[in-house]
Amino acid sequence: MNAFDDRVALVTGAGSGIGRAMAVAFAKAGARVVAADVDRARAEETAALVGEAALAVTADVGDQASVAALVEAAIGAYGRIDVLCNNAGILDTMALPADISPEVWERVIRVNLTGAFLVTHAVLPHMLRQGRGAIVNTASEAGIRGGAAGAAYTASKHGLIGLTRSVAWAYAKDGIRCNAILPGPTATNIADGATFDPAGAARLSPVLALGELMAQPEQMADAALYLASEAASFVNGAIVPVDGGWSAG
Ligand code: NAD
Known about the structure:
With 249 residues, the protein is of the alpha/beta class. It has helices at residues 17-28, 40-50, 64-78, 102-130, 151-170, 198-203, 205-208, 217-228, and strands at 8-12, 32-37, 54-58, 83-86, 133-138, 176-183, 239-242. It has a 7-stranded parallel beta sheet with strand order 3-2-1-4-5-6-7, sandwiched between helices. Strand 1 (8-12), helix 1 and strand 2 form a beta-alpha-beta unit. The longest helix has 29 residues, at 102-130. Residues 12-13, 15-19, 37-39, 42, 59-62, 87-90, 111, 115, 138, 140, 183, 185-186, 188-190 line the site of nicotinamide-adenine-dinucleotide.
């Protein structure tokens, strides 16, 4: 018997990095996995890695119609959603508040914060019907400090922590738990093709130099697996740094 036998896990941003590691880890633990990503090829690659127990769905978490279709596909295929990992996220340009463009602000908030809200909002009715559910949000060290990223990313991850606490509090008596992990720097594709604002990057350079504390995506997946499992049955509203001690300093 595996910890997640008969469970269904929906992971957003499952086509790469931390989300891919989560999809693989939940499947290894017995779950059927809905691997959702805005990039179809990446979602399909992850589903192929997982094998029979995975369904790849192309979905943009920042788009309400796309999210509705994602949740419909998950329920259509498996009939339930026990675990939701709101993991899809994008970097900002490291721009400071005076320099960030409204377009970058809007895009980052839409994917990192509104995206998590839209998926949670669409999945909650199913979890409430089931009387059971665990949500794990991928926030960031930038969710608890002001100097770990640019203004938009920082605000989006602080907001995601607020959403985590709101959901945890609201549904504590309904069998639904909601927690967040705060990854430190992790070896993924998130910075591929990124262009950084020079002034912001200069101020944030101590953070960018944190390479020696670089984690592997599987270390984030392990933490998410714990928070979604029965071993964490009374852990609700927890904001969990998974950063090798960076936030302890
Ligand atoms: P990644 O770029 O390797 O993977 C992110 C995936 O999300 C990609 O496959 C991308 O296609 C997908 N995605 C982007 N926008 C999407 C959208 N609108 N809808 C659906 N999917 C979308 O990056 P990662 O590092 O694995 O990032 C995962 C999460 O971890 C993010 O929320 C990120 O903010 C967070 N995080 C990462 C680090 C790090 O150092 N890598 C640190 C702290 C937090």
